[in-house]
């Protein structure tokens, strides 16, 4: 039987490996948050464990989501460790970067960052790093949780120029949680999410698919208007505060690292790898540890916080859709 030439050509095309298959983008990220290296007596062990594992995992890049260490010479070794990673590496500016009287400009310069907010492309994805430490009031003291007008305008322009699906990193989250433990989240998070939602409604093929944050020391995710908001747990501990102090290590450790007793430390450093595919999934690698000493709840910490805090990063697969 003679096959018509057009049909014959179609059969050849279909038989060519990969010709009829849609090309998908895939990225693998090594991620940690809230290392708080100055607080922990075993800080070097924690960050070294992460970096050594990432050398085995070989992600496309690593990123820490803020509260790494102050911009001080006494912590130079921690920065040298981070910079020793052979692949691409990124920082997010947290609120504790400015401890010890350091400025945000010093924190940025110490990390060899060109700006406290920036973006980059990798493997068919667009990544945006936001800085939630702007001043809402120029006279305000203490820690900030705000994104100012210049950064908001930059954010809108950067989103409008991308050709790829978008992932956002910030220290403080883009959802505000009132009356949980304390008020967590960027104060004008609603306005930031409006920018995201407006972009997504007009660009479903290059939408914002996920926003990762640290700061809360939570292991928690939620989905709002088809965008995943993902809290990455601290590498080191959950902060408990004055009402739940407990000396968990030796007297010498307590003397030299006075803030540990206000925390519930994790025995093992927590971190994760994140894999994202335009096939429509985000895979978060799980990692479990245990509390050092009594759990927060054995000390009377509110039971409602069990939804958010645990000595783990939960293994999850989150789905999304690109049109």
Briefly say what this structure is.
It contains 7 helices and 16 strands.
Overall mean pLDDT:
92
- Which spans have pLDDT < 50 for at least 5 consecutive residues? 8-20
Count of folded domains? 1
| Helix proportion | 10-25%
Shape: globular
What is the CATH architecture assignment? 4-Layer Sandwich
Strand neighbour order, sheet with most strands: 3-2-1-12-13-16
How does the major sheet shape up?
6 strands, mixed
Give the structural class. alpha/beta
CATH superfamily: Metallo-dependent phosphatases
Termini separation comes to 42 Å
CATH class equals Alpha Beta
Radius of gyration: 22 Å
Proportion of strand residues: 15-25%
Number of helices: 7
CATH topology: the name is: Purple Acid Phosphatase, chain A, domain 2
SSE string, helices as H and strands as E: HEHEHEHEEHEHEEEEHEEEEEE
> How many strand segments?
16
Describe the structure.
By secondary structure, this protein is α/β, with parallel strands linked by helices. The chain contains seven helices and 16 strands. The longest helix has 15 residues, at 43-57. 38% of the residues are buried. Helix content is 23%, strand content 21%.
